[in-house]
Amino acid sequence: MPGISSGQQWQKVGDSKKDKSYSNSGGGDKKKKTLNDLPTLEKGCPLKPDETIFSQYARIMSQKKSKSHPSQTQTTNIPSHQPDGEKSPHKQKKKPRHSTKIVLPKTFEEAVKKVSVSELSSCLSDVKAAATDHYGMWLTELAANLNNQLDCQEGEFTFSKFTSNYFTMCPKQLRHWILKTLNDVETSGGADCLSAFVNHCLLCVIDLTGQHRPGYGYRVCLQAVASIHPTAVLGLTLDSVTDAIQANLTYTPKAMCILWSLSWFGFSSLYVGISLWSHVFSHFLSIKSLVPITVNYLDELVSRYGEQPECQNLSAGVFFTMLDYAYPSQQGPPVAVVPALQHKLKQHYPWFRDIVFRNAPLEEFFGKLLNKCLLLRISQPAETKNEVLRCLVHCLSLEPKCYKVWNQLYSREGGSVHSSLLLHHIHSNWGTLSHRLERQHLRSTVLAFNAVNVSFETGNARPKHYSLCDKETKRMLLVLDQDINRLPYRAIITSLIAIVIFAIITDVRIINDSVYNSQSYKFLKDSGILDSCEIVYNSASVHIDHSLSWLQLNVPVYCDVAYSAVKPYVAYTTDKLLQTAVYIATNSAYYSSTLWTSLKPHVVYTSDKLSECCVYVAEMTAVRRQHVVESLHVALRWVDSSLPHLAEFLRTYCYAASAVAQDSFAKLTAYSQGWLSHSG
Q1: Could you tell me which residues are beta bridge partners of residue 10?
Q2: Which residues contact 154 (CB under 8 A, 6 or more apart)?
Q3: pTM of the full predicted structure?
Q4: Of 188, 273, 461, 531, which has the fewest Cβ atoms less than 10 A away?
Q5: Residue 630 three-state SS
Q6: What is the pLDDT of residue 68?
Q7: CA atoms within 13 A on the CB side of 555
Q8: Is the C-alpha dihedral spanning 183, 186, 191, 194 positive or negative?
Q9: C-alpha span between 90 and 607 (Å, rounded)
Q10: pLDDT in tens, 321-351
């Protein structure tokens, strides 16, 4: 019976240890066996490196270490069992080990100054000697050694801004060495090696970010690859990159570090940048934690490439992605976007549109954009509908081949709602669009539409939107026929005015060289036009004089009347203003006293300082004045002592001059007497 033991005694089921052990062991084995038989779901990252390369590299390096250190390999193979009587040397008393803690630099700037290019080069040479043809191993070893040397205490994990270009912060020698190694690998192994290296660096950055380590070495390598070969990131499957970001959304820094790393490839090439935005960044506009880096990436991309960038081989899908976010259709954008972000995307939308219109093949773009009109129903926002239709008209105005594409689509589909929408838009805005569209191409296209409609009218099977297309086609054809049959009044009038002006100028300035002698003047005078103009002028001057005299008499009167009417209101307003001023002065007495109390110490302090400054200036002035007086006394004493010497000098000079003058006068007198006697 259950519950009875082998000794035929009653026992409790829970007290039997044997039953416990049996149940635990048997049940556990069955449970483990059942769990092992169940299928498991392996979590695999879409960014997955080549394991065979790394396993081969590990085997080669282990063999190299075993050859270089044979003694260590022998000691490791010694068996652990020894005779009982002998003491094992491993069981001796252990000596305390003093662990030397490595002090890491605090910042990246301090760490990059200690990087040894010679050490990195020697390590890379060893790897090249061990793995000659495995170029991916060269780069992985380079990145690992560089990351070890750039390890520091503080790391940047926000990833929301793009101000830190760590590659440009490295020394010039290190940058040149990294670029030379990357160029050698690209030349020898091709661009696939760089793509695999980018994949490896992304994995390492994700792993280190999860460990709260900066991983600056891998960031430098990613920015270096982006600077010389930005299309290397396109070697990865962008859908797998998107899946990797979605897999790491539970820990935001991992997802942000992937976007941050990809953004540097976009900054180096506009084509890569727009492709990354369309296939990767745009999928995370609804994630609140990733919105800052997504918006900052778009702002930086627009600011780096200016207003009129050039981007060849741009696909139309990029434009449609931006159009769906900036101008959502009835189904909405691919993801929900907050209004503020949608406004910013709408600001950047013209930049994308200009790039597409300038670089993409417009005939292919026109066909895809025309098919997008199928989503535009009457319930759609008018802004979205008008933007798509404006883009279609712009394509027609830039590329005449778009008319042929439009004709082919209309003939193949037998009339469709998007063609009727475009025709209705052109017809409604014909006044502004007539000078932009080529009328001959448009007329031939509408005539072809009409022929297709006639063929369906005679047949039995009519398309769904036949009546709407036929109506818009006939309306557009009627407008084009009216333009052809209409007399160009504006051109005729402009031409006549120009001819008359040219004839008058030729008659006055060239033929007769005078206004009154010209045939035009004579014609105007003989026909009575000048007399009529003179009568009109005289009558107008008389009326103007009457009007001025009336104003001169009546304006003062009306001004007095207006002043008497306004005077009570002015007085009332003045009284109210005075009352308001008194009220403010009365109620602000407390505040003014409080303000004066708080300002009084500052005023007293300022006045004291000013008085001290005045005293100081007075003292300095007195000192200066004393120096001036002393200098004047010295000058006067020198003049007093110098005057006798000057008087003596002047006296001596005057005596000498008078003596010379007397001698000269005596000689002149003697000469004149001799001349007079000789002449007599």
Answers
A1: 4
A2: 106, 107, 214
A3: 0.55
A4: 461
A5: helix
A6: 44
A7: 6
A8: negative
A9: 88
A10: 788 777 776 555 555 667 777 788 888 888 8
